[in-house]
Amino acid sequence: MKEALQALLGHPDLWLGDGRGAGAGRAALPTGFAALDALLPGGGWPAGAVTEILLSNEGIGEMRLLLPALVGLGDGRRIAWIDPPYLPYAPALAASGLRLSRVLVVYAGTNRDRLWAAELALRSGACGAVLAWPGECDDRSLRRLTLAAEKGGCLGLLFRPSLPAGRHSPAALRLRLAPSPRGVMVEVLKGRGRAGRSAEVPLARISHQGS
Amino acid sequence: MGNAGLFLTMLWLCLHLPRLPAEVFSRTGTVREPFVVAAGKGTRELVVVPSVGARSAGIRPGMALSAAHALARGLSVFQRDEVSEAAALARLAAWAGRFTPVVSLAPPREVVLEVAGSLRLFRGMENLVGKVEEGIRDLGYTAQVALAPTPLGAALLARARPGARVTGMERLTPELFAVPLDALDFPPDTLEALRGLGVGCLGDCLKLPRPGLDRRFGGELPRYLDRALGRHPDPRNPFVLPPRFEGRLPLLTEVSAAEPLLFAVRRLLLELEGYLEARGGGAGELRLTLSHREGRRTRIEVGLLSPSRDTGRLLGLLRERLCRTRIPEPVSAVGLSVETVLPLAPANRELWKEPARQVSEAWPELLERLRARLGDAAVQGLRPAAEHRPERAFVLMEPERGDEPILPSLRFGRRPLWLLPRPAPLERKELTLLTGPERIEAGWWDGEDVRRDYFVAEDSRGARLWIFRERGGKRGWYLHGIFG
Prior knowledge:
The complex is a heterodimer. Chain A is of the alpha/beta class. Chain A has 6 helices and 11 strands. The longest helix of chain A has 14 residues, at 111-124. Chain B has 16 helices and 19 strands. Strand 6 of chain A pairs antiparallel with strand 13 of chain B, so a sheet runs across the interface.
């Protein structure tokens, strides 16, 4: 009986009145990569929370790492891209199985508007995932984004240059990505019980014959 | 008692607004204490209602204005504005339509609601009264509330014994007994005559022999008492909801900042919410009018993607818009109007308050707010296009609710997830070519032809790049995408 109740309370679709239900907190979305699922606390990307992804530079596989989870968000909610560094390329997104009608690209311009738009989208309940590239983002802003992600039950992904790695972070999960011969090396800088661990996540080779 | 049965199933709630003449000014949030509302001319100018601050300085209704000035330094005086009071009362009646379809105006300071049919919907009398009182406070009014089986009974209790709840006809007469004469709607000379007879309260009136009362006061006073007690029918004209909403609040201190404006706007939005709920619909478009001096106006129109009456959502929209709008000069009044009421699914209102709101509601709101602050062009959707030229294989467009069109599928190689806005010239020697080439030759038919060989390459930092070698025109290597 107690187990059944726990299972019910832990169901990601269940909202508890006090906002502390599983859906608001720590449900995990499978990443689509066994090595990454094994590495991350909870076995996937934390929904209803913010994940910081630190990159030395763009293009090392960070999007390919995320795409299976984004494709797998099956509840009809949108995926917001707030001030991405380049154009998300429609043919490639469509080829990977992402439904483009769910993609929302927001060009905020200033960092203030960027954080505002990210918070709004995270909180709205309309988005299953929000990808944001904030320039400056202090702890207070990050905490606000975390609360918004929790309220909206949204997967928040913040891409940041790898500079602030040493600092404390209010985000639930902080990862550092580095290129590796077969794919991407993912290191957990912060994450329940997993800090300090890392794993190589193999990515499909890019060839002109398609994947 | 023959007609008493008619009223047995009725329950009237009276909203008595003792401070209405002052609150039509103070509810805009732009009035400084202490102030009084006065009426009359010259030396006969009397205080109608003192503000809270003026009251604590000892100023009372009916006091000469000169005496009031002596009691409070810096006292502001506003001329009583009965037109605004009547308009405010009418908007309050429209707002009250959210609680029951049977609402009636009882000027100058009352609205009565027949709520017997609403008790179940609002889960009991206390809940209903609580909601009414909370709503009234939010609108910026002070209300005395009482319930009784007759509208006049409810009104008399609201004036004299606010908080009274008389649900059964059998309790009505004893409960009304102690209502003082001042609460009755009679001219001062009639009340004076009654006092002369030793009458101090409604109960005393009832003890007087009926034929004597009739002789002395005509039929009017006995009939009035019978209506109050439910012994005589007291039909009320139902308030008819106006076809459009129009609210206006004068600001007594001119303001030019957004926040004080939004305070007044919120009050109007709360009225609108009640009105729209009474109409069973939502607004598709809001018009905000800011009045300046000499009849100049600033009009702000906001369209909604889906009809709504949610004050929080509408205020958020107007806030974004107001903060982006340059207000050319100080504002002396703010008006809000809605021309047409659009249908709204009745369940929406309940879902709206839930944390996990339905996506169908949350999505248009998100779009609206992003657009209101960032502009339409800053919010885009993506669609693929049937084109071989990489830079034309997609369109940025208005994000929609519908699904993407099904395009004829073009066969092409692996494409990067990031595309550069335009190809960037590149030094090839930094890169390692991984695969390629994929030859793309297209566009000769519209003069924007491309002739390129695309390769996947890796740079020294491990990024996978999509690059091409130009085969016609300007030769050389270009970066066009990043696999990300």
